[in-house]
Amino acid sequence: MKNSRLFEILYLLLERQSLTAKELAQRLEVSERTIYRDIDALSAAGIPVFTQQGQGGGIRLMDQFVLDKALLSQAQQDEILFALQAILATGGGAEGETLAQLTSLFRREGGDWLEVDFTDWGSGAAEREKFALVKGAILGRRPLSFTYYSSAGKQSRRTVEPARLVFKSGCWYLSAFCRTRQDWRVFRLARMDELSPEEGSYPYRRPPERLEPGPQDEYRAADLRLRFEPSAAWRVRDYFHPKQITQEPDGHLLVSCAFPEDQWLLSFLLSFGSQLEVLSPAYWREILVREIKKLLEGYETGQMLSGLMAYPYVRGGGEQPAQYKEVLTMEERKFCQCCGMPLDKPEDKGTEADSSLSGEYCRYCYQNGAFTAPDATMDDIIAFNLKFNAENGFPFGAQDDAEKMMRGWFPTLKRWRKA
After folding, report:
1. Which residues, 6 or more positions from 296, have their beta carbon under 8 angstroms from its beta carbon?
2. Are 8 and 28 in contact (CB under 8 A)?
3. Contact at 8 Å (CB) between 350 and 366?
4. Burial, 195: exposed, middle or buried (Cβ in 10 Å; 0-12, 13-18, 19+)?
5. 8 burial via Cβ count (<10 Å: 0-12, 13-18, 19+)
6. Are 276 and 232 in contact (CB under 8 A)?
7. What are the phi and psi torsion angles at 111 (to 5°)?
8. Of 152, 176, 287, 373, which alpha carbon lies 20 to 30 A from 212's?
9. CB under 8 Å to 417, separation ≥6 — which residues?
10. Among positive and negative, which fits the CA dihedral 346, 350, 351, 357?
11. Percentage with pLDDT > 70 across the chain
12. Count of CA atoms in the C-beta half-sphere (13 A) of 196
């Protein structure tokens, strides 16, 4: 405590040039006798501090005194400023004021040469506020309550005794003693919501040395062997340790790694698309196949979150990029040649006069070998589709865009095709 007070006295004298013992005592909440003892201690340490009697007098430092000549070298100053800027980058608030004071104290310019930002693009303010709240709870030993979302999507309300913040694999984690589970747990800050400091305090508990998932998550590690296309090299080298990577003569990258088996791992592997092949274990190849088939079926049938159904590429609506031609033409798909509805399931198809399924029209447009609305025009069908679009939350996009797409595509359908 005394060393901190001596440093503050030194800073105040550098900033104000002259202060009385009474002013310093009031500022530091000690007696004037203590201030005079502190001044003697600074003088004994080689700080050129003296008292001046009379009107306008007070405690002063010799003119031209700079702290770095007495206590810290320029390299030591740089290390202090660097450390404070690194702490500030994690979301600290008070460190910003301390950094400004020390930059002034050292008579240094260019103190803002370093910026480290651990937050995602567009989420800095919210993440910094969350980080500051968690940091304050750790330093003040205050319990913290929050809603937590596990990697499997499970939601629970937790009350914890925060112990340590850890930055690992590009993410912030909180190691804390969970009062709900009565054991140590690890929480990813990005999955914490509705944070609320609780009343009271808690005794210090030493957190586990290693940051590992808790047993409540029932993690099972998967030993993976992955093969990446050369075009994915920048992501591979960003994420994996060099010792995990082996480069083949043709440029492909082999990676051996272990991950907890959860939804995150599935999303991570899928994010590489065709740039990745899982070599082992074999059951993870099957997991990816099932997920890809499910995703493809969802887009083809419109059973996605928005209900938007895919349509084939329409010529005349702009030049199609070569890399998308195979995806967008969907030549193997069948669509109703009246309203454009996909005919992916037998029950979606209309019927012929002999009760057989139609291969060209849907059940809404065609029954028993005849159109259900024989006098309808193409404009009538487009108007009906636009009404459906509006009533279902615009799954085909904005009305103008949807109408433009339909008017470009419908003339190519059999019922509206010009003879």
Report:
1. none
2. yes
3. yes
4. middle
5. middle
6. yes
7. -70, -5
8. 287
9. 411
10. negative
11. 70
12. 10
Chain segment 30-82, per-residue pLDDT in tens: 888 888 888 888 787 777 888 877 676 788 877 666 554 445 566 665 656 55
Residues 168-190 have a mean pLDDT of 85
What is the Cα–Cα distance from 91 to 353, expressed in whole angstroms? 72
The pLDDT of 274-302, averaged and rounded, is 86
Tokens of 348: 């979606």
**AA identity, residue 178:** C
Q: Which residue has the higher pLDDT, 389 or 286?
A: 286
User: 132 - beta bridge partners?
Assistant: none
Token code pair at residue 324: 């998308």
169: nearest Cα among 188, 150, 147, 154: 188
pLDDT at 153 over 80: no
- Round to whole Å and give the CA distance between 387 and 403: 11
Q: Which of 172, 142, 171 is nearest to 159 (CA)?
A: 142
Rounded CA gap, 224 and 279, in Å? 8
> Which candidate, 289, 291, 296, places its Cα nearest to that of 330?
296
Is the peptide bond prior to 281 cis by the omega test (within 30 degrees of 0)? yes
Query: Would the pTM count as exceeding 0.85?
Result: no
List, as one string, the DSSP characters of 268-309.
Answer: HHHTTGGGEEEEE-HHHHHHHHHHHHHHHHHHHHT-SSS-PP
Task: Lay out the sheet containing 276-280: strands in order across.
Answer: 245-247, 253-260, 221-228, 276-280
- Residue 412's nearest CA partner among 317, 285, 296, 301 is 317
Tokens of residue 188, six digits:
């990813």
Report whether pLDDT(167) > 60.
yes
Report whether 81 contacts 130 (CB < 8 A).
Answer: no
**Alpha-carbon gap, residue 232 to 175, rounded angstroms:** 33
**Start-end of H helices in 183-336:** 233-239, 263-270, 282-301, 325-329
Residue 172: exposure state from Cβ atoms within 10 A (0-12, 13-18, ≥19): buried
Q: Please report the pLDDT score of residue 211 as a whole number.
A: 61
The enclosing H or E element of 221 equals: strand 221-228
Q: What is the CA radius of gyration of the chain?
A: 34
